[in-house]
TrEMBL record:
Domain Gfo/Idh/MocA-like oxidoreductase N-terminal: 87-163
GO molecular function: inositol 2-dehydrogenase (NAD+) activity; nucleotide binding
Lineage: Bacteria, Pseudomonadati, Planctomycetota, Planctomycetia, Pirellulales
Enzyme Commission code(s) on record: 1.1.1.18
Alphabetical list of PANTHER family matching this protein: BCDNA.GH03377, OXIDOREDUCTASE FAMILY PROTEIN
Pfam families: GFO_IDH_MocA, GFO_IDH_MocA_C2
Alphabetical list of PROSITE patterns matching this protein: TAT (PS51318)
Location of the Gfo/Idh/MocA-like oxidoreductase bacterial type C-terminal domain: 205-453
Keyword terms, alphabetized: Oxidoreductase
Name under which the protein is recorded: Inositol 2-dehydrogenase
Cytoplasm in keyword set: no
Keyword rRNA processing: no
Length: 456
């Protein structure tokens, strides 16, 4: 830990001791946040800039000034520095090492959009450095990381938003869906199906030289040391011209070493809305059963036996026993979206539509005034960053907080563990551990590679 971060944490702990249970704020958090005038705008930095990193940065220029950007790929870093300069009229400072961002006293908050295996380490160190945090979904690589983040948020008093923008930015379809459920428009909920799409397996991906612009050692970070693999075919469009098949950049989602496949990618969106509607934000399932699934490579004792192909599930049907006898199905089949079924009706919602008789009935029997605002906990924000800054200003957690996100994501992590071990898992949502299965519980955490442990 750097001397400046040690000092920040020491002062925080001394402040807590002096203030008792009062929330201790760092000087940076005491500014008047908002977008009314330039000197009232918070100062941000983004760590991890490919694809979603630029997306969340570009959506935030109207609310914040970006003083720094960090990325381990010099091409990505340079391109985004230039784009940021054009947007705000001033170039941000550029760093390969995110720790230089955390050492700066002028930065109020960091936006983290690295691959998933880096999220927790950077977020924890950022909070101890006095920064509020916006971190992309899925927040964690393991369930243990989620518990750690909850502990540090509580200990430091930092504001922390998870980038599940579906809670704020996909118009009001999902909030309307939750309101329909909570207002009893489908009676007692019996079943909810989350369609999150499957994926295709990869061919064998050979070892090739690391691109000159990429610090692959630092990209791996806490993950195991492995060779860089890629095929020469390029992904057009969203992939930004990187290899279509690789164990790096956009394809990181397809490897358990760095992410959790579709279960934690799209699952982090639709399972989130489902658990929110069910009122299960502070609890969890009792059982997770892999009904049928396809892993693209052979597994032994929960680990892939080869390292030259994608290893996350390509197809799946997972049954989850939720509170109040609600059955949740997470599936790669059918339309992407969420189907709610109850004793008095059913409806379907996704980012393009909300359909079904309970929705049609709204024409003659609309939701009560304020029903959607009640779901959201206040005025609905049309921008996820705006909701984050509102939380920073009020020193309260935003709509997508670590606690609700972790409870939802535990379902997705458990689904992956169940498939890797090929068995049903019984879950204790109070202790947050798998019941009677030591091997399965060993998958709730992972060892960080030496030299990349979390600095606390």
């Amino acid at each position: 830990m750097s001397m400046s971060r040690q000092t920040s944490r020491r002062r925080f702990l001394q402040g807590v001791a002096a203030a008792g249970t009062a929330t201790m704020l760092y000087p940076a958090a005491n500014r008047a946040f908002g977008a009314e005038s330039p000197n009232e705008r918070p100062v941000f930095a983004t760590i991890g800039l490919r694809n979603q990193g630029w997306t969340i940065t570009s959506k935030s220029f109207r609310f914040a000034d970006f003083a720094a950007l960090a990325d381990v790929d010099s091409n990505v870093l340079g391109a985004n520095v230039e784009k940021t300069k054009k947007q705000q009229g001033k170039a941000p400072d550029a760093y390969k090492d995110y720790r230089k961002v955390l050492d700066r006293k002028d930065i109020d908050a960091v936006m983290i959009a690295t691959p998933d295996h880096w999220h927790t380490k950077i977020a924890v160190e950022a909070m101890y450095a006095g920064k509020d945090v916006y971190c992309e979904k899925p927040l964690t690589l393991t369930i243990a990381e989620g518990k750690l983040l909850e502990k540090v948020v509580k200990e430091t008093g930092r504001v922390f938003q998870v980038g599940t923008m579906q809670r704020s930015e996909c118009d009001e379809r999902f909030l309307q869906a939750i309101a329909l459920v909570k207002q009893g428009r489908i009676g007692t909920v019996k079943k909810v199906t989350c369609g999150i799409n499957g994926m295709v397996a990869s061919p064998v991906i050979p070892v090739v030289p690391v691109p000159e612009e990429l610090d692959y050692e630092f990209w791996l970070g806490p993950a195991p040391k492995v060779d860089y693999r890629a095929l020469p075919e390029l992904r057009e469009g969203y992939g930004g011209g990187v290899p279509l098949y690789s164990n790096c950049h956009y394809s990181f989602r397809n490897w358990h070493e760095y992410s959790g496949g579709k279960l934690t990618d799209w699952g982090a969106h639709h399972v989130d809305i489902a658990t929110w509607a069910l009122g299960a934000d502070d609890t969890g399932p009792s059982k997770v059963t892999p009904l049928d699934y396809t892993l693209p490579v052979e597994y032994k004792n929960g680990f892939p036996v080869v390292d030259d192909q994608y290893n996350v599930a390509t197809q799946f049907n997972i049954q989850v026993a939720m509170p109040n006898d609600v059955e949740m199905i997470i599936t790669s089949e059918g339309d992407n979206g969420i189907l709610f079924e109850g004793t008095a009706g059913r409806f379907f919602v996704n980012r393009g539509k909300i359909v079904g008789k309970p929705v049609e009935d709204l024409e003659s029997n609309p939701l009560p005034e304020g029903a959607i605002e009640e779901v959201y906990g206040g005025k609905v924000s049309a921008n996820h960053t705006a909701n984050f800054i509102e939380g920073m200003k009020a020193r309260k957690q935003p709509i997508s907080d670590v606690w609700s996100h972790n409870r939802m994501l535990e379902i997705c992590h458990l689904s992956n563990i169940a498939m890797r071990l090929d068995r049903e898992l019984n879950w204790d949502p109070t202790k947050r551990e798998i019941i009677g299965d030591a091997e399965a519980n060993s998958f709730l955490s992972r060892e960080y590679r030496k030299g990349y442990e979390i600095n606390m």
